[in-house]
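Anyone? Bumping this.
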Amino acid sequence: MRSYISHQIFQLAVVVFGISLLAFGILHVLGDPVLLLLPQNAGKEEFERYRRLLGLDQPIYVQYWKFVSRAVFGDFGKSWYADTPAFQLVIERMPPTIYLTLAGLLVALLISLPLGILAALKRHTWIDSVCTAVAVAGQAAPLFWLGIMLIIVFAVRLRMLPASGYGTWQHFLLPSLCLGAALAPITMRLVRSGVIEVMNMEFIKTARAKGVAEPMVVVKHAFRNACIPVITVLGLQFGQLLGGAIITETVFAWPGVATLTVESIRNQDFPVVQCAVILLALVIVVVNLVVDLLVAVIDPRIRTGA
Amino acid sequence: MGRVVASGSALLLAFALVAPADVWAQTKEDTVVYAIQSDMQNWDPPNSVLRESIIMGYHVFDHLAARDVKTGKVGPSLAVSWRNVDETTWEVKLRQNVKFHDGSRFAAGDVKATFDRVLNPENKLTARGNHTKIKSVEVVDDSTVRFKTDGPYPLFVERMTALVIQSEKAIKEKGHEWMQENPVGTGPYKLVKWNKKQDHLMVRNDDYWGPKPAFKHVRVRIIPEQATQIAELMSGGVDVIKAVPPDQMDVINKSGGARTSTSPILRTSFLQLDQAGRTGKNPFQDKRVRQAANLAVDMDGIIKHVLNGLGDRTATTINPMAFGYDLSIKPYKQDAAAAKKLLADAGYPGGFEVGFLTTAPIVEPALPQTSEAISADLAKVGIRTKKRYVGEVGPYVNLVRDGKADPMFEWSWGYYSIFDADAILYDVMRCGEPYSYYCNQAMDDLVIQGRSTLDQKKRAEIYTRAQRLAYDDAAYLFKWGLRGVWGISNRIEYEAPRDEIDRMFLVTPRKK
């Protein structure tokens, strides 16, 4: 188990290094931020002065080294736009995004678990077909469109929920439904195939032969075993979920780190984008590590490499 | 199993049904809600270039002078009167019995402290560039200040509307950092709370010296997505939105809950033709070719049919709302035969092919469509355009600045919100300016004359000559002044502002 963990942590370090390179590199090919920082009628000397001030006149590798050695201590520099430390800006905006992602995950589970199990148990019936159809439709609908549709139906037509914003629990409903609906289909199909596979296993037959009641067979024996791939995929999908949060947050005016990132990209606010990308990537990497360890705990085959 | 499904769907149903009425508590009778696309960086207007900061600044602060939204004229605000003592001195009399939100009295010292702070290069405030013509500010007595300027400064009065007056006490005792989030103004509203990237809540200043706003609260919400803004407007979550796309006007007007209002804004758009030869030798260096281009295009038709009427035709680059605009100069009228003849005279009987740099409709609505229509008209007389597209504003402006645009390219100019011909002529029509592809010594002379006298009558004459020159010389391919579209909820009365500065203190409840 120890070597398994250290192996995972080594992988994590490699990934984080790669991300830091990417975060640093990508923005440098995007364009000149000084142009956006200065008014249209600024002179050439002023442009040069600003470039020096921001260290943009130094060689790229020097810029990168400075960037990494400070980033390790959470110092990503000040936002070029807001005059506040980038790290503080991003951290302030982290909670709404995490809440939204978790709420989305919850919604996805609430939809996918019952439907997946139901579809598996009623395989090849109309119930299964309906569930599969819903899953395919859900997977095909673009998040952006779904968000706008939810707003039009629940806020504009029915006037039941606020169209956008943040603050009360009602504000959570549409965004998390939107986000959850995007994740639910793949999870549902996985639960379905997992349960179908497990239901044909010997131990299920044994359980039934022992006279265990059918609901007990499904929940205790079948579902628990079907869970392993689901947990793995949820871990992998967490990144997807955060990606989806960018669109969801924009549509619902959610004050999270995703809208901050998009806005900072638009403003070419390098420090904030770099900080946000690295922190979000860290969250994903850590979640995946936790999932790997969790699965290893549940399934001994994985940690022993059998 | 059944239990899982049942409890799951029950939970969802509960979520859906229980949504109580207090969701709408935010739109209380005494609150007007205004939506903006992105938040500002700070509550220190001189330290920001964003329009949002200008707009919010109008609510919490006052300026020395203010523009009357109806007439467009600049009139008194914290200053009650002003006069020239000599060519380079302006004396300003200040309003008395005005209080800052922290209770302290407004006096001449506050004006001096505000300008001193902005003018000090060490403070690196972005507003400095607008006021560098001011050399110093002197306090004469409690209610009088004198501004010394570097040469005659005819734009002084206009520029008084562009700087908020902050409190000397805050500047000296609290300092820069503190002022970034704590505005102390004299304006009609006080800031109560700022949830960054989310909303600003303001409450009416009951000690305000001017007319009291009708609504007790203003809530400014940050909603990045345009479709969401429109949905909020129609569902009653927001009262005022701006920059409505022309194709959404119908949706809003038919919703029953809201309507649109349009207003000309202080921005002119045109196609720059490289008369100066910055992109290299090109046909537009010949005056006859530029005239032919202006005669080739049916701009009125494009405004009417492509732009849904959201433009006001201009004879030159000067916006109808800017000081110096001369109504008597009529725009070019389409005349394809004359255009062809001019081209033939210039040595292009078969026409020619030329590069055309275009961009995305970020500042100008429906830009791709109007560009297409203009290209089609030009092609009819033989000017065949080869389009190059750069969608991002930053790189686009960069290309233009560095002389790397094409002989013909899209351009529009917002005058830095200064309603004066000088604000476009100086930057966009003068030899050697980064954003000008026109170079004519006669024009340069007029521009310099225009900013060297305080006599407004004389200035108007100078700008008439400048417009006549730009028109006769067909300096650029002239298009139109832009119009903005606002969405307004049916529970309030409000009119689209021509300076693009929304003023929630002018909003009143709609009579039923």
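Late reply, but here is one note on the structure posted above: Chain A touches chain B through 51 residues (CB under 8 Å).
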